[in-house]
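Dear colleagues,

For the upcoming journal club I promised to circulate an example of a predicted protein-ligand complex. I picked one with 2H-imidazol-4-ylacetic acid because it came up in last month's discussion. The inputs are reproduced below in full, followed by the predicted structure.
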Amino acid sequence: VLRRVETEKSTDITVHDAEGRVVIPGLVDAHTHLVFAGTRALEYEQKIRGASYLDILAKGGGILNSVERTRKATHSELLDSARKRARTMVAAGSTTIEVKSGYGLSLEAEVKMLEVVSQLNSALPVEFVPTLMSAHAVPSEYEGNSEKYVEYMLEHIIPEIARRRLAEFSDVFCEKGVFSVEQSRRILLESAKWGMRPKIHADEIVPLGGAELAAQVGAVSADHLVAPSDEGIVQLADSETVAVLLPATSLFLGLAKRAPAREMIRRGVAVALATDFNPGTSPVMSMQLVMSLACSYLRMTPQEALTAATINSAYAVGRGERAGALEKTRQADIVIMDAEDFREVPYFMGSNLACAVIKKGVIVARDGNALF
Ligand code: IZC
Ligand code: ZN
């Protein structure tokens, strides 16, 4: 498909001919939980039969189900399964992928997860952005005592992860029955002191005030935002925080409620997109599918979806100056799509149109197959 037409040895430049196809920036997946053991296909059936996500979590399933299995898994088991999924993501056009911990919930197991992310970075020719998310759930050892777990995070997990430089960002699941707004604020401010910039799972299920908190603590992103308050949207618009919308999650859970993307864009919020790839609420690996959902489901235009999946999501992971756009000053992260018009990318919902994926000038996937 892709033909090398010329090599200028003197300048070491390789010229490729895309033969009239659409060329876009490498897609940036700004929110994933890529590293975990097992799946939650059984809970998928339970949810179809009527159980709610938060009920399953309150009974020790959900995130805690994945925690139990991830704690038991070895480094190499976690690395192998994450590598396999990363191949699928990259073959679909993602060249930068944010990855959260949060299925360890102890210092040892969070370190293990983030070491796997670091190993992915060394072993694979794409970029993984590590985020600490020990504030993903209250582990069963601390059941009914979330304050004690917060203290443990503040005293032990956050300083040690920062000291070992294992994460660039720190994220909190600010949600009813998980971490309150005040707990989230403490965790994020303490993380920021240690040099890990805040991110928040905000207003996903219940409107708690996560959007407002994101703006107040200067979060790099506020993610989900299915149920933000009007005030929260206004505060986000006045802030530097990027709103990362995750429409695959709403679709997978079969929820009618969707993030108010049009309202956010109208008010001037910077909107980005991500898969939210995780075993519980979004086993979706394709940013192309997420772009389709943003258009059909959130009423974003194809132009807005492309911006949201590239430059805005690059800013949401602190890579706004070097990824997310085709410019001389940036990395050559590029996807060649088998399309004549960029609108065909979201239009062919569920197909993979990426015929070549290029990371920093090197072809890393071709015709649906990763080359690693
Ligand atoms: O494993 O359920 N929402 N965290 C917050 C998730 C979804 C991931 C999971
Ligand atoms: Zn998430």
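Two points we might discuss: The chain has 15 helices and 15 strands. The first strand starts at residue 3 and ends at 8.

See you all on Thursday,
B. R.
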